Amino acid sequence: MAKKRRLSYTQKNWVLSAHILFVVARFGGILCMFSLLIASLSANHSNELHVTFMNINLLDDVFVKYPALGTLITGFLLSVLTNWGLTRYYWIIVKEVLTLGAIGFGIFFMNGWTDQVTTGISSGGFETLQLSDIKHLLIGNLANLFALATMVILSYVKPWGRRKNAKRPKEVQRTKP
Fold first, then answer.
1. Is position 1 within any domain?
2. pLDDT value of residue 160
3. What is the pLDDT along the chain (177 residues), one digit of tens a residue?
4. Is residue 99 within 8 Å of residue 74, measured between CB atoms?
5. For residues 121 and 51, what is the distance between their CA atoms, to the nearest angstrom?
6. Is residue 7 part of a domain?
7. Are 131 and 2 in contact (CB under 8 A)?
8. Structure confidence at residue 166 (pLDDT)
9. pTM exceeding 0.70
10. In a domain, 162, yes or no
11. Is the keyword Transmembrane in the record (predicted)?
12. How many CA atoms lie within 13 A of 22 on its CB side?
């Protein structure tokens, strides 16, 4: 059986640094989007609203989507190529579910709502804009912020410990005398 590949200490630190940078970029992008959504509620002209939502789309593309993908990839690498494992600890499982849930929510809901509002503003201005559309975006953005903040806290606190039936890596397992 082939020996399982592990990251060296230096490699792990580089992957962890990239992971943290992706999280910071994503968190900053979501905070900026939230600020622009709040600002859009007080817009006086459809041009002002259109520019605001074009910026929201840009932030979503650059500082939310790609960092989310980077976070997913680096998190997977850290789980698989270190002793943490994908399912060995409860807190890691919760982070995986939150990550996939937030990415899925962004793909299937947030993108559609943002595109719907941007298209509505482009074609009809204030008349076609529904306040409920912006409220959906605000609530969705807050949900993303909450999920990301929860993942950061879980990474730091590491609650709940190891799963009872989780296997230890071969090189860490103790043999009975």
1. no
2. 87
3. 556 788 999 999 999 999 999 999 999 999 999 999 999 888 888 888 889 999 999 999 999 999 999 999 999 999 999 988 999 999 999 999 999 999 999 999 998 888 888 888 888 766 666 677 788 899 999 999 999 999 999 999 999 888 887 666 655 555 554
4. no
5. 10
6. no
7. no
8. 66
9. yes
10. no
11. yes
12. 18
Q: Is there a domain that residue 21 lies in? A: yes
Residue identified by tokens 């989780």 is 166
Task: Return the amino acid letter for 148.
Answer: L
How many domains are there within the chain? 1
Domain hosting residue 103, numbered range:
15-157
3 state SS for the chain: CCCCCCCCHHHHHHHHHHHHHHHHHHHHHHHHHHHHHHHHCCCCCHHHHHHHHHHHHHHHHHHHHHHHHHHHHHHHHHHHCCCCCCCCEHHHHHHHHHHHHHHHHHHHHHHHHHHHHHHHHHHHHHHHCCHHHHHHHHHHHHHHHHHHHHHHHHHHHCCCCECCCCCCCCCCCCCCC
| Three-state SS annotation for 78-122 | HHHCCCCCCCCEHHHHHHHHHHHHHHHHHHHHHHHHHHHHHHHHH
Angstrom distance (rounded) from CA 104 to CA 10: 32
CA distance to 70, 129, 156, 162, per residue, from 150 (Å) = 18, 33, 10, 19
Name the CA radius of gyration of the chain, rounded. 21
